[in-house]
Amino acid sequence: MASGLGWFSIGLGLVELLAPQAVSRVLGLRGQERLVAAYGAREVATGVGLLLSRDPEPWLWGRVAGDALDLGTLATALDRQSDRREEAGLAMLAVLGVTALDLASAWSHASRRRGRAAARRRLPDYARRSGLPASPEKMRGAARDFVVPEDFRTPAALRAWGVANEVA
Amino acid sequence: MRALCWHGTQDIRCDTVPDPKLEHPRDAIIKVTSCAICGSDLHLYDNFMPGMERGDVMGHETMGIVEEVGSEVTNLKRGDRVVIPFTIICGECDQCRRGNFSVCERSNRNKSLADKVFGHTTAGLFGYTHLTGGYPGGQAEYLRVPFADKTHIKVPQGLSDAQLLFLSDIFPTGWQAAVQCDIQPTDTVAIWGCGPVGQMTIRSALLLGAKQVIAIDTVPERLAMAQAGGATTIDFMAESVVERLNEMTGGKGPEKCIDCVGLEAHATATLDSMYDRAKQAVMLETDRPHVLREMMYVCRPAGTLSIPGVYGGLLDKVPFGMAMNKGLTMRMGQTHVNRWTDDLLRRIEAGQIDPSFVITHTVPLERGPEMYKTFRDKKDGCIKVVLKP
Q1: B125: helix, coil or strand?
Q2: ipTM of this predicted complex?
Q3: CB B85 within 8 A of CB B341
Q4: B192 with B214, same domain?
Q5: Contact B85, B168 (CB under 8 A)
Q6: Domain of residue B110, CATH code
Q7: Does A146 lie at the interface with B, CB-CB under 8 angstroms?
Q8: What is the pLDDT of residues A66-117, one digit of tens each?
């Protein structure tokens, strides 16, 4: 469902971004074209995030927050004087429907994340898997007998000349 | 025989394929006793490396028993126990004589293709695209080893497969990554990525005497294993890597930085990786070089960047001016496995290190396809998978 919402988000966003005048006119939001275009950019960004992310949950909650913004903005068009009250009302109903989908998807991902976290808490403990016969502190430098081949050494010009050639 | 074969993006299958045969007097056939899935196999699994073909046998971390040798292989006999390095080497070309085995000039049978793509060929590799020879890999019941008189590490009977298998790749890779840093007792070594190579690099840096080893990842069990090896850890999802590294080095940055991540950096953890992922999706970039960028930014001037992590092709927005002006040294490349394995085998035999600590899953070969997914998704505490044919 997350990728479906992602494509929907990009589609809606492109319409708002490319035709803000038309969208504003239809929804009774004349004078708010820039706001509508900004909402379009937000929708596109959220959609791209949803499609590319391995963990879509933060983007889904981002969509829910965006839905709240959309509803708040549409509510301003419900004014009795507005000649587009009916369209604004229908748009709010549509947004409410999409919000329900966003919430369901976000909750479902959150629940799966909690399940994964619980599974992770049950994972075996690797805190003793050092691969070393003694504590790391004791083993520090145990292989200092290894002679780094000349072609793997830091180039002579970059070695600590100042340390090796103390200048008074 | 049974073998794990590549069939496309995230599609590995356990197929029945023809048994390998001697094709050249320098060949040997190995009966595989253990093999492993490597982090770099995941780049093939996710189809980020060009040059794979349907049906290619996967795998380049393999060991087993010599079954049959060609007429020119005089230093191996049936029954010998060997680990097979992932780089195929002739042992005679100019690069092999210099010890630069991973760029052997003769073992890549698709040399002309590699010459075109890389400018000059690199060594042939087992199970790692047709760009490096298209040799069938070792996630199988049997493996044909070309140039077998040189491409092997003879190992004693007294140690287990689990202790020896990683001489084939990840142990010498982690070792070379640390050796490339020419570690001094005053050095702080920062290591990005706590997968299997990262874990080996942490222990190598510690054994080579680094003052402080810092490991960066976000997977809790990998961070726990890194701490067990003596590293101080940074969870990149929970804290700022740059701020923490500067805090731990008196504001100066680590002298040595090692990239054990490579081309598939976490796609959504940072804005630059999201940018890279978007460009990958429309084929405008092949790799996600977030770690390279971060290392160049945070490394102490005149420091060293060591890059064992695999990169595939074209990288975007790498701040090379930053690296140039800070006078950074960069060392990278596939591992010259045989250059280090005599010394590392001696250290395993002496009990200085037991590389089997990294194994979290040992399963029959037939379960390989599901383990690719488990390993890629870091599920079930998976850090290293060993397969038993």
Answers
A1: strand
A2: 0.91
A3: yes
A4: yes
A5: yes
A6: 3.90.180.10
A7: yes
A8: 999 988 888 887 776 767 778 888 888 888 999 999 999 999 888 888 877 7
